[in-house]
Amino acid sequence: MTGQPEDFTATLLRAAASFPHGTFTLRVADGPDAGASLTLRGEEPARLLIGSSPACDLRLSSPMVSRRHAALELRGSRLLLTDLDSTNGTFVGELQVQQAFLRGGETVRLGEVRLLVTHAANAENPEVPFARGFGRLLGESREMRRLYPLCEKLARSRVPVVIEGETGTGKEVLAESLHESGPLAGAPFIVFDCTAVPPSLLESELFGHEKGAFTGALAQRRGLFEQAHGGTLFIDEIGDLDPALQPKLLRALEKSEVRRVGGDRFIRADVRVIAATRRDLDREVQDGRFRDDLFHRVAVTRIELPPLRSRRGDVSLLARHFWRELGGEGEPSPALLARLEAWSFPGNVRELRNAVARAIALGDEASPPAAALAAAPAQGDAVQSLIDAGLPFTQARKLLQDEFERRYVERVLERHGGNVSRAAAASGIARRQFQRIKSRV
């Protein structure tokens, strides 16, 4: 990050370079899944997954393949292959890779499974239709527009959906949009945040309780399942759900009925479930923190929301929207929009909204708070610049730490040719810890 907005011509050139050219196909060469294939055409959601999980776009049955083994993304005339911290590694030829660009003709090995990669340079690659958003979810970047056709299909159905993405990417907004754009639009939309309720009250919150069921239960209470009957129950941060409650949630979903705490009868509760998580649920299953059978029940389909830093051109669109929504006068200034475009927004859309609110309340120069960091190379003292921004201590410290980690990871990866293992060793930390830091920045 230089602290300066990217030149408009450079933006166009960068976007053109990443525009998909032709198609790539990966075909399983041998083993029980021989002949299975996955073709990337460019109009699909940005990342497609390969692994043994039912949530993967190419599912492999080999025990040597991790649940989410690798991800694929079409970048111009190349295919970006990323190992997702798999157990048995991802290889291109004989070389183990963390990330690699493929051009066609390679053999990729996941564990013991060989995939043959072909590139059809002149194959039809339809343009993604232009749209400014889906329901309340805004974004006209290609990264977002590739999601909207899938969103429209899911809105018309009642299948369970898991929405994945970093904190602040708009998962609840998407869930509301799926509900409001489908046949259940007039029915209840009920939100349950797994991180906002004490463990001792989770069961009562979801399933309700009878009067006198426990100390403080002074009256009968309908749970969220009952309240959502006939509509949608949105379970936010389902990856944080208490393991003790997971089998009860599974039964409620399978039987479409609940029993209140202290009750002696089952009550019909027919709901569509949309769940959201910032966690990798496959990793949670693998590590024993999330039930496999519950995962199969809620992850019938998945949508992965991209971070704001990957959504080219959406910052200004969202900033103008928030400016109007929050009561700003006129339009945000070009200078403010330039500073917003120059920032990486580790807190995603939520951080952008807060930055716009701060600018409305305190003036353009006060936002984004991290603009002090963006200007720091020219001023020579990032810490002093951040102190001068007048932020609360915890927020200023986190911004400085996030920006340090981002720059450090970028630089050390650059020095080691993108090899995570060598970069982690040079940093003096374990590869898994380095990978966790890398995933946050």
Supply database-style keywords.
441 residues; alpha+beta; 5-stranded mixed β-sheet; 17 helices; disordered N terminus
Could you explain the architecture of this structure?
With 441 residues, the protein is an alpha+beta fold. The protein contains 17 helices and 22 strands. The chain has a six-stranded antiparallel β-sheet with strand order 2-1-11-10-7-8, with no helix packed on it. A five-stranded mixed β-sheet has the order 4-3-5-6-9, with no helix packed on it. Strands 15-18-21-14-22 form a five-stranded parallel β-sheet. Strand 7 and strand 8 form a beta hairpin. It is globular, with a radius of gyration of 24 Å. The two termini are 12 Å apart.
Task: Summarize the entry for a quick read.
This protein is an alpha+beta fold and 441 residues long. Helices cover 36% and strands 20% of the residues.
